[in-house]
């Protein structure tokens, strides 16, 4: 094990870590990202082994972080001043440990039967939450359009809480081509359409969720089998305009899981 105490922002190791924290292009180019917190690091280790590097702050870490640091005593470690450490973490109250890891590549099923497609989702916490929901509901693979935010950013990883380590994800996808190649029924979520609950979701199913504000592009919507909507109460009173993208995804995905459990 090697241990370094870095105190300068001009240090090349810190500069590289800052790029991994802030820059999607750098993460893609190097195939690495930063994990924040004990839970994410342990989730990664359960499947993919030890991280490449451990980063800790000066001062006291949480009890959980201290225990993990002791278990990873053979891994190269750097210590940073608190303010420098804070520049790398996506949360205000960090747990006191970061890990540099290789971005995993999970195999994609040849003929997936349960698919989530996301178009132009911009908020990293939102996309992380949707990936978490997809993993929990049994989705086979998630396709992300070229304009989606990076799912390997520290904030998206924090939102996913380990979903990225168990769920096959394909980024920078032409969704129209993906829809044309999908051997099943594809459903575009929209403000107006047939009720989600009127659909037979027992066949191979793909749900397509659009941008948080703008929704799906017209071309993408036209490439799907059907437009669907989620019935809501109180819409006539104007109190509820629509569900947000994350909530809509959760309702659709778990309805499909419910129907599949009945067959």
Automatic annotation (TrEMBL):
InterPro entries: Alpha/beta_knot_MTases, Ribosomal_eL30-like_sf, rRNA_Methyltransferase, SpoU_MeTrfase, tRNA_m1G_MTases_N. GO terms for molecular function: RNA binding; RNA methyltransferase activity. Keywords: Methyltransferase, Transferase. CDD domains: SpoU-like_rRNA-MTase. Residues 114-254 form the tRNA/rRNA methyltransferase SpoU type domain. It comes from Methylotenera mobilis (strain JLW8 / ATCC BAA-1282 / DSM 17540). One of its GO terms (biological process) is RNA processing. This is tRNA/rRNA methyltransferase (SpoU). Pfam families: SpoU_methylase. The keyword Membrane does not apply. The keyword Cytoplasm does not apply.
């Amino acid at each position: 094990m090697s241990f370094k105490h870095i105190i300068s922002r001009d240090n090349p190791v810190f500069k590289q870590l800052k790029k991994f924290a802030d820059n999607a292009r750098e993460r893609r180019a190097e195939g690495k990202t930063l994990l924040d917190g004990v839970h994410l690091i342990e989730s990664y280790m359960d499947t993919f082994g030890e991280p490449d590097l451990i980063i800790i702050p000066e001062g006291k870490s949480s009890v959980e972080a201290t225990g993990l640091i002791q278990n990873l005593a053979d891994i190269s470690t750097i210590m940073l001043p608190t303010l420098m450490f804070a520049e790398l973490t996506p949360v205000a109250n960090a747990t006191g440990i970061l890990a540099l890891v290789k971005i995993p590549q999970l195999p994609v099923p040849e003929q997936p039967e349960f698919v989530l497609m996301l178009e132009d989702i911009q908020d990293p916490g939102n996309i992380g939450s949707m990936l978490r929901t997809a993993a929990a509901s049994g989705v086979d693979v998630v396709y992300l359009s070229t304009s989606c935010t990076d799912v390997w950013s520290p904030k998206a990883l924090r939102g996913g809480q380990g979903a990225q380590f168990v769920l096959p994800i394909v980024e920078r996808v032409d969704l129209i081509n993906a829809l044309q190649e999908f051997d099943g029924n594809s459903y575009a979520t929209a403000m107006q359409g047939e009720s989600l609950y009127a659909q037979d979701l027992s066949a191979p199913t793909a749900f397509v969720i659009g941008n948080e504000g703008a929704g799906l592009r017209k071309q993408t919507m036209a490439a799907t089998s059907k437009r669907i909507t989620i019935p809501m109460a109180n819409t006539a009173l104007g109190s509820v305009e629509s569900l947000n993208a994350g909530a809509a995804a959760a309702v659709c995905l778990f309805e499909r899981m419910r129907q599949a459990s009945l067959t």
